[in-house]
Amino acid sequence: MLPCHSFALAVVRSLIPASSPSLTICCYHATSTAISQSEFRLRKTMDRLAGNARLMIVSDLDHTMVDHHDPENLSLLRFNALWEASYRTSSLLVFSTGRSPTLYKELRKEKPMLTPDITIMSVGTEITYGNSMVPDDGWVQFLNQKWDRNIVAEETSKFPELKLQSETEQRPHKVSFYVQKDKAQDVMNSLSIRLKERGLDAKIIYSGGMDLDILPQGAGKGQALAYLHKKFIDAGKLPENTLVCGDSGNDAELFSIPGVHGVMVSNAQEELLQWHAANAKDNHKIIHASERCASGIIQAIHHFNLGPGTSPRDVGNFLEPKADNFDASHEVVKFYLFYERWRRAEIENSEAYLTSLKSFPSGVLIDPSGTEKRLHDCMSSLKSCYGDRQGKNFRVWVDQVLPEQVGSDLWRVVFKKCEQSGGERQCCISTALLSSDKVGAQKGFTWLHVHQTWLEGAAPNPPKAWLL
Questions:
Q1: Which of 96, 117, 127 is nearest to 207 (CA)?
Q2: Regarding beta strands 372-374 and 364-366, do their DSSP bridges make them parallel or antiparallel, or are they unpaired?
Q3: What is the strand order of the sheet 134-135 is part of?
Q4: 103, 263, 317, 376: which has the highest count of C-beta atoms within 10 A?
């Protein structure tokens, strides 16, 4: 019996609310008039950490964090598990993408991506914070200097080689075209001269063998990161380490920021490798990984000794507790990874696995539809579900796992849980109450209560059976 049982029952109602729990890391109140909404969001993001971030990862998305040649998304899921188990509570995740907000949100629907603390979009011309993606007003004001989209439109119209990209990719501080690789350099040289003659301080970036972006001179992925670093320095919150990750030409600026570690993933394009050879070949803080995409990022974490480098997805034995993994975040990640592998029949159908799952007999699971179930019964029902998702591309991942110690051995953990089978995805927000216990040399967690609500727009239609 757990020593905290009576206490757990007394506090569970206050710890697991009847209404939907919120995962918003940063919130803005109308009374905060002294600072902008974006500044308030950034401060709240930093205040979530106990001190300076242990690590800040700044990663490109397409072909860096996200591998479009990996239909199972295994490298991305490996990174997700590592980040949520070992870094979410002490570090910052920044996505830096050439995509516009529209295409970024589309990618999030297609791939099992985590929620970043900060999002840099449109080739470094837009910076947003938190779940609500609140734009940085100061960055907008800075980019407005010496920038005129009308002049860009006039001058680019004189180049028939330039083909305008879709309307979604045209942003206030970014004008984007397609141009053939063999014509790109001549166009860039001529266009640069014409824009200077018109008094426009602009930057032209070519990447991906086809994309040409025109931005304010002060914009770009590197400048956006430098701007964030300055904000952190001013607040006394500069991350202890920054790891930048990329694969193409528009990522090159990231590697130019002083003091950062950098990884060019193994599938990096020639344009980035050439830039590295010409500008940073003697910088030992930048490596060319031997692994693709997110797996290359994990490789860099290990190479530079920036923190834990083994993803829970790379651990096969769930029955072997490790002292260095005894924390509530790791417990949540490990449980849902077991849940996925059990239903995919990727682990042995053994009673030992089921008996290792602990749940308080009086515990309650309130599922996203509002149905109340005994948590012990839910755990027991797993036995009949062994292999029921085998061969169905079934995946489960958790996001924004945020634990809070609420008693000497009690933890309240709020997180998003998503599961996908084929092309259908269901996501909920979960609040779990866990008890940490130790019997002899064995350490573990007991799941006491769980409350779930559908994430907005992520409920199945029509409703489907929901296990855990």
A1: 96
A2: antiparallel
A3: 134-135, 126-129, 118-121, 92-96, 56-59, 242-246, 261-264, 286-288
A4: 263
Contact criterion met (CB below 8 Å) for 424 and 340: no
* Residue 168: strand, helix, or coil: helix
The two three-digit tokens of residue 466, written as one number:
């929901």
Which residue's entry shows tokens 């996501």?
Answer: 427
pLDDT tens figures, 301-327: 999 999 999 999 999 876 665 555 679
Note the pLDDT tens digit of each residue in 142-195.
999 889 999 999 999 999 999 999 999 999 999 999 999 999 999 999 999 999
Q: What H or E segment, with its residue span, contains residue 127? A: strand 126-129
Question: From residue 10, how far is each of 5, 14, 95, 105, 151 by CA, in Å?
Answer: 9, 8, 41, 42, 67
352 φ, ψ to 5°?
-60, -35
70 sits in the region (left: phi over 0; alpha: psi -120 to 50; else beta) called beta
Strands 118-121 and 286-288: unpaired
Q: Are strands 410-421 and 394-407 parallel, antiparallel or unpaired?
A: antiparallel
Are 40 and 26 contacting, i.e. CB atoms less than 8 angstroms apart?
A: yes
Q: In whole angstroms, what is the distance from residue 191 CA to residue 152 CA?
A: 9
Instruction: Indicate the length of the chain as a whole number.
Output: 468
Spell out the residues 6+ positions from residue 121 whose beta carbon is closer than 8 angstroms to its own.
97, 98, 99, 100, 101, 104, 128
Confidence (pTM): 0.89
